[in-house]
Specification:
alpha/beta, Aldehyde Dehydrogenase, Chain A, domain 1, Aldehyde Dehydrogenase, Chain A, domain 2, 2 domains, seven-stranded mixed beta sheet, six-stranded mixed beta sheet, 15 helices
Length: 496
């Protein structure tokens, strides 16, 4: 039975003023409605922002350790509800249950980590150049944040944004992806249950117009966005014009380099996980694999065979290894990219079709797809597909591999498999990406370090982490000088 979810504004669960609704479907069984959600208007967004603005003074003045204690409660609630929430992630987004549980675990980890930051929101105290004078810096909240999240990590990414924003003393309006409204609702329900005061976190469901209304609202001081590159560029432009704090994370065209001296069995496992984990629907998914020539034929044969053994199906079944594409629109987009690759005369080595066997005929399934004879100029080699599609390239040298890896507008995640410590050292220095993995796949970032990339992957402070990461987005610096000399002391005055 479909769940009826609502907006959450000023501590109350409410429908949209428009009265309109939309539905989210189970992508493994597209005839099953998971949730009915409100299609929010600009008025709903305005209500939510006003509630966040009203709640801001009291929340920002609450001692940061107390804010952290509330996040500890959220972490405990998430831990207790992990299995139920993981199953909901699988039903609404489609990823297999072990990955869905990992999605929730990442939210738990972020809650615990950021709760601890309540006692670590440190600045700096330094000596003054003048006698009887203090000099220090402190972190203070930005204000009201609009957080816009995607569907592929429907609990983890909201947690990445909400928890650092809250511990830093900001209030939030969350606009989740329209594909996963039930998952976002459960997250906010846990925040309410933990005892967050009314208006500190607000939730508005809807489509792109709802997100744009949030970005444009004059009562919003900062924006955190994860989504497509095209939408990210628009968010950046709108935020810059209004002088708002802004961070965007907008994807990648990630790469795995396999050198001939690598542990090739390990590299195949990493390539399978990178290319087809979460059905390729990760911003860190490895959609390009570059193999050194002496190992290419061996690698290709075994990688292709292994991809063909992956079992597709409902992610709630323990035997399933790869779930569906999240929606009909994304399903068609991936199939269109596959058709483009064939028109570009890349060789379709395996897959490339909708998968409709057995129970999968009711869902949005696509076979694991491998292209060879791909040139760097091809569309499938340059654009983010966000599906189970991978391009293989053959190179002669490490220099050629690194040059090809960097030949993209994106710069999120890269990996190299090699036993040569000097080759790995050169790769970690020269790969122009925010994340570099040595003998591991492009997937697997940990929340205690900043997450993000270079070039068109996004802009602004990074997600996750502490200092050097999310706290640099959700706080601003204030420098305080206190002169207790009782006399006028003039700094920056030549005393000679």
């Amino acid at each position: 039975m479909a769940e009826r979810v609502q907006n959450f504004i000023n501590g109350r669960w409410v429908d949209s003023r428009s009265g309109r609704t939309f539905i989210s479907l189970n992508p493994a069984h597209a005839d099953e409605t998971v949730a009915v959600a409100p299609d929010s208007t600009m008025t709903d967004v305005d209500d939510a922002v006003k509630a966040a603005r009203t709640a801001l003074p009291a929340w920002s003045h609450m001692p940061a350790p107390r804010r952290g204690e509330l996040l500890f409660k959220v972490a405990e609630l998430l831990t207790r509800r992990k299995t139920a929430l993981g199953k909901l992630v699988t039903r609404e987004m489609g990823k297999v249950l072990p990955e869905a549980l990992g999605d929730v675990q990442e939210a738990i980890d972020m809650a615990y980590y950021m709760a601890g930051e309540g006692r670590r929101l440190s600045g700096e105290t330094v000596p003054s150049e003048l006698p009887n004078k203090d000099a220090k810096s402190v972190r203070v909240p930005i204000g009201v944040f609009g957080c816009i999240t995607p569907w592929n990590f429907p609990t983890a990414i909201p947690a990445w944004k909400l928890f650092p924003a809250l511990v830093a003393g900001n209030t939030v309006v969350l606009k989740p992806a329209e594909e996963t409204p039930a998952c976002a609702t459960k997250m906010v329900e846990l925040l309410e249950e933990a005892g967050l005061p009314p208006g500190v976190v607000n939730l508005v469901h809807g489509f792109g117009k709802t997100g744009e209304a949030l970005v444009n609202h004059p009562g919003v001081d900062g924006i955190s966005f994860t989504g497509s590159a095209a939408t990210g560029r628009r968010v950046e432009a709108l935020a810059a014009a209004a002088h708002k704090a802004c961070s965007t994370e907008t994807g990648g065209k990630n790469v795995i380099i396999v050198m001939a001296d690598a542990d090739l069995d390990l590299a195949i496992d990493g390539a399978l996980w990178g290319a087809f984990g979460t059905t390729g629907q990760r911003c860190t998914a490895a959609s390009r694999i570059i193999v050194q020539a002496p190992a290419y034929d061996w690698f290709l044969a075994r990688f292709t065979k292994a991809a063909g053994r992956l079992k597709l199906g409902d992610g709630l079944k323990s035997s399933t290894q790869m779930g569906p594409i999240v929606s009909k629109a994304q399903y068609q987009r991936v199939l269109d990219y596959i058709a483009t690759g064939r028109k570009e005369r890349a060789t379709l080595l395996r897959g490339g079709r909708a998968y409709t066997k057995g129970e999968c005929k009711q869902g949005y399934f696509i076979e694991p797809t491998i292209f060879t004879d791909v040139t760097p100029a091809m569309k499938i080699a340059r654009e983010e597909i966000f599906g189970p599609v991978v391009c293989l390239f053959k190179v002669e040298t490490l220099d050629e591999a690194i040059g090809l890896a960097n030949d993209t507008v994106y710069g999120l995640s890269a990996s190299i498999y090699t036993r040569d410590v000097n080759a790995s050292a050169r790769a970690e220095r020269e790969l122009d990406t925010g994340l570099v993995y040595i003998n591991a796949s492009t997937i697997g970032a940990e929340i205690q370090l900043p997450f993000g990339g270079t070039k068109a992957t996004g802009s602004g402070p990074r997600e996750a982490g502490g200092r050097g990461g999310a706290l640099d987005l959700y706080t601003k610096w204030k420098v305080i000088y206190r002169d207790f000399s009782g006399t006028l002391q003039r700094a920056q005055i030549d005393k000679e």
